[in-house]
Amino acid sequence: MPTLNRVQLIGRLGKDPESKYTPAGKKVCHFSLAVSNRWKDKNGETKEATEWVNIEAWGRLGEVCQEYLKKGSLIFVEGRLKTDKYEANGETRYFTKVIAQSLQFLDKREKEEPLMAVEEDPGEYEFAGE
Question: Which DSSP letter does residue 91 get?
Answer without folding.
Answer: E
